[in-house]
Every structure is written in C-alpha cells, then in structure tokens.
C-alpha cells in the first residue's frame, strides 16, 4: 500500500492558515442573514459584529463545534452498497449534466432530457462510480420547474448509485428530499442515499436561503458538504494563501452553523471550489494550477481535523479533447488524489466546469483507474515476491507457463486501460477519445440499471402531481 501522498502544506503552514481563519471569524465574523441562526449563534457565545447581520464567531465556539461533528457518516447507494468516510475510505463521483454538453462527435450543444438518462445509465455501468451529481434546471427547452422535476425523474430511473445535489431554490430542495425519500424506501435517515452541497456565499456570507436549505437537509438526516466557491481577486483575496484562509474560514462558519442547528450532525468539508479570476479578461478559472493548489490545501485542512472531505479537480478549461484536456485532468488530480478525500470527483467535467460529456466521464474513469493502481501500491506478499518461481525457472528460462503467470494472467495484477491506444502496427489506430466515445455508447446501449421499479413508478406519480399543482 502506498505510504505517502503529495502535500502542499507543512503541518506548521496548515496551523498558520487555521489560526488566520480563526482570526477572521473572531475579529470580523460573517454576515448571517437568518435571524434564528443569529440568535442561536449568540446563545452559544458569538458576539455582534460591525453591522446588524454580522456575527463574530469566537475560536472556542469553533473548537466546540468541531468536536461535535459526526466524523463517521455513512452514505448508501440505491443498490445497497455502503459508502464510508474513514481516513482510508474512498469512493468516486461523476456528473450527468451541465449547462453545455461537449459532444465528442457533434460539438458543443445545450442538454436535452435524454442526456440525463443516458449519462446516469453510463455512470451506473462504470465500476468505480458510486456517487452521481445532477445539476438542476439544465434543459433550456423546458420551464424551470418542469426541467427540475422531469430531470430528477429521468435521473433516479437510471442509476442505483448515491445521489449528490446542489439545489438553487427551496422548492428544488424539497423536490430532492421528497424524491430521494421515495427512492430510499421512505426515510433518508434509515437509508441515506442523498448527499447535498450547501455553500456559503463569498465573501463570508451565510445567506437566508442557504441557512434554510441547510436546516431542511439536516432535519432529514442528509449528509451536507459545506464550503465556498470563492474567486481570488473578486470574492476573495488574490494571493493563493489568502484565498485558502477565507475559504477555510467559510467552511468553519458553515460547520458551526450546522452544529448549532443540529449538534452531532454529519458534515463533509468542501472548499474545492476556490479558484482564481484571470485579471486579464475577468474570466473565472475553474481549473489550473492555482485551483489545484487551493483544493489540495483545503483537503489537507479538512483532513487535519479528521473531517470527511469531498473534492476533486478533474474539470478542464478547454472545450475539446486535445492534449490540453488530458494534461489539465492529470495536473488537477496530481494535488489531491493521494490526499484524505472521501469522495473524489467530478468525472465528466470539461469547458471550465460549464460542460460535460459521456466521453469525458469515460476518459476520467480511465485516469482514476490508472491512479488507483498507484494508490494501491505493490502487493509484496510472499507469493508475489515470486522467489520460488525465479529459482525454479533459473537463468535463460521463461515464465510463459510459470504457475504465477497462469494464476494471475486474467487478474488485475497489471492494469491495461480499455481506452488507451497501444501502437497498433496497422490495426485499430483510433485515438483515446474515439475509444472512450465508443465505450460510452456501448455501455449506454447495453446496461440496464436494476432500479426498484415500484419506486420509479412512485416518483413518476409524484412528478405528475407536482406538475399538475403548478398548472
């Protein structure tokens, strides 16, 4: 098993950043729009800030809330698989839709409802994916509520994984909770198949909407991932260190909010969204070295407090399948893959996190399979040290019929990516992108998710009732 990982912070630097974040919360605080939460924080020792909404959070309260976090939450897949969040636990996530589909054959287009079903089925078929994110309201030809409800219906009918959501409205939050409860068999507390992202708004704001959303999820036992998408130079300081300090302060503020609302609630650290603005043109860059550094730092900060962490840096700035796409995906993974990340994603993301595709899901799946072999390391059991085979074969022999060759030749002892081109000498010279596209289409065409049909039917009835109520 691999014994080391890549670190971007020393322990002293991690302590420095944490101390700086505590100073930000204690001296300046955060804006809390929700009156009830402000009162709850004040009752626990927070003090008024410079404005009526601002609340200063003392370091003692942060420490108390870090103590009460449930650090061993469990997610469950619809198929019954359990996803744990211990220091060595890892599962993988993908996305099934975005504002744009970067189709490897037809180019960039807007999503259709069928894309959600197809991509959910693909994720269900790929062996490493146990957690899938659906972005709400991405089908432009449909009314917003119709897009959300019909998208959810298509999604849950085609995957047996755990679900990840980030609703943009309280109504959307309700849809997710109620549909997930149906798919869970009635109770998300008994069968926790839903994971939600609840952000702060940078800089340092806990909005009324997100606080109410947080309460809704916590009331139903949903594991919430908290953290900002702070933008260096726009909604956070321009230096990478300052970006990380503010992002970590916002994570801590959300941890405190969750523990004040529901002590002992499970919370996962996020913050992988911290990224820079390109000051040359104002573009927000959701990939690249700075984002990878900030994400790695946030992973190390969360891991330092033994918090479950959801992260990943697989998105790329480019909107095509050239060398840049591969380099960016690999560089993004470089900083965080070997860290303390419970859920690693998001496979499929491209075009500055505004696009995705079936091809990109498969390409990222291949990359993750490759990296998993490094994370696992080399098996040095006595049998695989192969001393007896080496001695029995001796000099000038061969190992073609050696017992270990015959025993392991059909195993995963050596990894061969299904999509990599190997110099074909006139045979199939398709590119990796072509192979990934073919593999995606084959899996979509042949895979049948084993989703409980009675629950899918109940979701369809639920969607019909909600659409009828909307008129």
Structure notes:
With 471 residues, the protein is an alpha/beta fold. It has a domain at 68-376: TIM Barrel (Alpha-Beta Barrel), CATH 3.20.20.480. It is 45% helix and 14% strand. The protein has 16 helices and 21 strands. An 8-stranded parallel beta sheet has the order 15-13-11-10-9-6-19-18. It has a 4-stranded mixed beta sheet with strand order 2-3-1-12. The chain has a 4-stranded mixed beta sheet with strand order 8-7-21-20. Helix 6 links the parallel strand 10 and strand 11. Helix 3 crosses helix 8 (240-261) and helix 6 (170-183) runs parallel beside helix 7.
Which secondary structure elements does this structure contain, and how are they paired or packed?
Elements: H1 11-28, E1 30-32, H2 35-43, E2 47-48, E3 54-56, H3 59-68, E4 74-76, E5 82-84, E6 91-95, E7 100-103, E8 107-109, H4 113-125, E9 129-133, H5 144-156, E10 162-165, H6 170-183, E11 194-198, E12 205-206, H7 208-219, E13 223-226, E14 231-232, H8 240-261, E15 267-269, E16 275-278, E17 283-284, H9 289-304, E18 310-311, H10 323-336, E19 343-347, E20 349-350, E21 355-356, H11 358-376, H12 382-385, H13 387-393, H14 403-408, H15 432-446, H16 453-470
Parallel strand pairs: 1-12, 6-9, 6-19, 7-21, 9-10, 10-11, 11-13, 13-15, 14-16, 18-19
Antiparallel strand pairs: 1-3, 2-3, 4-5, 7-8, 16-17, 20-21
Secondary-structure-based class equals alpha/beta
Level-2 CATH architecture of the domain at 68-376? Alpha-Beta Barrel
Radius of gyration: 23 Å
Report the strand count: 21
Question: What fraction of residues sit in β-strands?
Answer: 5-15%
Give the uncertain stretches in residue-range form. none
- Identify the CATH class of the domain at 68-376: Alpha Beta
The percentage helix is 40-55%
CATH superfamily of the domain at 68-376: Trimethylamine methyltransferase-like
Approximate shape: globular
Separation, N- and C-terminal Cα atoms:
58 Å
Could you say what the CATH topology of the domain at 68-376 is called? Answer: TIM Barrel
Helical segment tally? 16
Strand order of the largest sheet: 15-13-11-10-9-6-19-18
């Amino acid at each position: 098993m691999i014994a080391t990982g890549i670190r971007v912070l020393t322990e002293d630097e991690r302590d420095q950043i944490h101390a700086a974040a505590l100073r930000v919360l204690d001296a300046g605080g955060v804006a809390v729009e929700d009156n009830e939460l402000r009162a709850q924080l004040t009752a626990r020792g927070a003090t008024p800030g410079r404005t009526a909404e601002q609340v200063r959070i003392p370091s003692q309260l942060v420490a108390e809330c870090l103590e009460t976090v449930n650090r061993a939450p469990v997610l469950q897949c619809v198929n019954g698989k359990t996803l744990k969040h211990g220091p060595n636990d890892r599962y993988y996530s993908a996305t099934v839709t975005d504002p744009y589909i970067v189709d490897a054959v037809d180019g960039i287009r807007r999503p259709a409802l069928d894309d959600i079903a197809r991509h959910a089925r693909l994720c269900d078929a790929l062996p490493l994916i146990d957690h899938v994110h659906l972005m709400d309201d991405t089908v432009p030809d449909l009314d917003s509520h119709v897009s959300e409800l019909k998208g959810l219906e298509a999604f849950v009918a085609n995957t047996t994984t755990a679900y990840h959501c980030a609703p943009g409205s309280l109504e959307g939050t309700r849809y997710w909770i109620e549909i997930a409860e149906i798919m869970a068999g009635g109770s998300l507390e008994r069968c926790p198949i839903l994971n939600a992202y609840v952000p702060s708004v940078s800089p340092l704001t806990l909005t009324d909407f997100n606080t109410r959303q947080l309460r809704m999820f916590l009331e139903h036992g949903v594991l919430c991932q908290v953290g900002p998408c702070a933008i260096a130079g726009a909604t956070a300081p321009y230096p990478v260190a300052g970006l990380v300090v503010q992002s970590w302060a916002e994570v801590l503020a959300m941890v405190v909010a969750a523990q004040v609302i529901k002590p002992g609630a499970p919370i996962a650290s996020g913050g992988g969204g911290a990224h820079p603005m390109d000051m040359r043109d104002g573009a927000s860059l959701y990939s690249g070295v700075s984002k990878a550094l900030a994400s790695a730092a946030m992973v190390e900060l969360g891991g330092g407090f033994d918090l479950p962490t959801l992260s990943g840096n697989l998105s790329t700035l480019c909107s095509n399948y050239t060398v840049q796409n591969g380099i960016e995906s690999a560089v993004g993974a470089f900083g965080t893959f070997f860290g303390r990340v419970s859920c690693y994603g998001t496979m499929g993301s491209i075009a500055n996190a505004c696009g995705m595709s079936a091809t990109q899901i498969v390409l990222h799946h291949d990359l993750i399979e490759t990296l998993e072999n490094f994370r696992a390391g080399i098996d040095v059991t006595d049998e695989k040290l192969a001393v007896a085979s080496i001695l029995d074969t001796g000099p000038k022999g061969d190992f073609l019929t050696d017992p270990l060759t015959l025993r392991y030749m059909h195993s995963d002892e050596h990894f061969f990516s299904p999509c990599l081109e190997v110099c074909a000498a006139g045979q199939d010279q398709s590119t990796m992108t072509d192979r990934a596209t073919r593999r995606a289409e084959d899996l979509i065409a042949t895979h049948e998710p084993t989703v409980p049909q009675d629950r899918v039917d109940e979701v369809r009835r639920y969607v019909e009732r909600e659409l009828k109520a909307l008129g």
